[in-house]
Amino acid sequence: MMTIELSTLGENIRRVRRSKNITQGAMADLCSIHRTYFCAVERGRRNLSFGVLLKIARGLGTTISELTRNVDPGVPPSAEASNYAQPQVVRYHGGATELKHQVF
Fold first, then answer.
1. Which residue stretches of 20-91 are H helix?
2. Which CATH architecture has domain 1-71?
3. Rounded distance between C-alpha atoms, residue 63 and residue 53, angstroms
4. Residue 46 to residue 20: CA distance in whole angstroms
5. Shortest CA distance to 64 belongs to which of 5, 12, 3, 7?
6. What pTM does this model have?
7. pLDDT for 11-55, tens place per residue?
8. Which terminus of the chain is more exposed, N or C, with fewer CB under 10 A?
9. What are residue 90's DSSP bridge partners?
């Protein structure tokens, strides 16, 4: 199951790992998780548990908050992304509002 949010999380993990010059194999060993599982996390192919996310954050010497930056519905995983639903507030007469998703 790949979602925009999991893809963004994976890209954030990859960005931090690369900035520290750590290979995927070394990172998996450091976190005590299988290398192929870690690679799938970075590709956004795994819905990881909080415990695994915590292991990865600790292994990278960062916080879960840093790794989950921009992991929000409607925020594309990269600047090149397109065709993602973007929230849009629609205001009606009488004060009612509705949140709609607009695809670009």
1. 24-31, 35-42, 50-60, 64-67
2. Orthogonal Bundle (1.10)
3. 10
4. 23
5. 12
6. 0.68
7. 999 999 999 999 999 999 999 999 999 999 999 999 999 999 999
8. N
9. 98
